[in-house]
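To make the argument concrete, we let one protein speak, a sequence paired with a row of structure tokens, as a model reads it:
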Amino acid sequence: MNITKLTPWFLFSCLILLSDYIKVNGSISPSSEQTQKDGIFGFKPKKLFVFGDSYADTGNTPVLIAPSWRFPNGITFPGWPTGRFADGRVSTDYLAKYVGLRTPITHKWGKYGRPRLVVKRGMNFAYGGAGVFETMFKLIPNASVQIDFFEQLLRRNVYSPADLNSSVAFFSIVGNDYLTYNRRNGTEQGRPALIRRVVKQILLDVKRIKDFGVRKVLVALSPPQKCLPLLVTPKGCDTNDTSTHLHNSLLRKGLIKLNDKKINNDDKSFLMFDLYNAFVTIFKNKGVPGVSVFPDPLKACCATKRGTSCGDISLSGKKLYSLCEDPKSFFFWDNVHITDQGWRSVFSLLLPDSQF
């Protein structure tokens, strides 16, 4: 190919693709140590597929609508914003490290199915602001649409049945449906019915992913919703929130039923990722011994007022946030999201036999 005949736009596009790949996929090295044989999945996954919200998004959410692409996001790692809602790595990165893979490419780049060497590790379909239903972030694809994206790739034979049989999926939708309900002034009387609808849809979604041929599906339970800095009261956080308990109780029961041998020949196809107990344990102990110390675990490192986000700047150029000196001493990055050190602590608790 004569490079002198390439258009400036083609060259620019290649540079953008390469830059995004380096930023997103070079974020965390795969783990070379797993003391438990084949870990929680019982085999060595070769691909990771991710569906979810901002706790799992590694850069899908568009630049024009996501504060995750603005400073100070990414200051801990890699040193600049990568579209993650954090100062560094998020759940997807740590799970990829656990299974011994590099972080899978985001759907916005991987949807083209090329380059093959990149998409072969799997793909991340998660978008910040996503729920199982439409949320207040109307331009964001919900979980069902994310799974549609996955199905479109399967129809194009980007992934074979053998690929799927060697893969695991991570499903992490943990609260935007409820935050949207709050924003729309939903009543407490109507909340239990919404929770049942949300959990029912989660179960339908994860079963659909498994039915495509994915070998195992890891499903995140909800963290204590009323312990987010956005919702915490002067009295502290409510770890006995009945709504969160109902969500997790129904989801546990549903996943146990899906794992019933009468329905599914593999009785451990669906695994639970217990964010609730991990968060509560970290709050109680103010960190994880030997891993982290959080003097005030309910306080945000990048603090903002209601209605603004970390990274927002006024028309006059004034920062609309205040930034802590050391993100490693904070569990929460902003009013909703977790720091890199926070996620490291969560994974150290839930997967204690691995090095993070």
